[in-house]
Amino acid sequence: MLIYTTQFVFLEQLKVRTNAQKTRMGYNGYSNIFRSLEFLASNLFFKSLDKSEQLQYSPDSRGYDGSCQGIILNELYYSIIF
């Protein structure tokens, strides 16, 4: 589940950083394109990692141990019938 949310955190950071670079004319000319992509690639990984660590604090504070305990549907079905 944490991997699933980390993907969206990564995509959000990509959108925010790309938008910031566009507003600062970061993609104007070939040298600026490569410099902006370099900066984006190096910074994006670390910022996404920091955000995903911050997201992990919430389940940890609630005692989440990594296991998903769900309702067994057969038992639920039989308990509704009887």
TrEMBL record:
It is a multi-pass membrane protein. One of its GO terms (biological process) is cobalt ion transport. Pfam families: CbiQ. Signal peptide: none annotated. Keywords: Membrane, Transmembrane, Transmembrane helix. It is found in: Membrane. GO terms for cellular component: ATP-binding cassette (ABC) transporter complex. This is Uncharacterized protein.
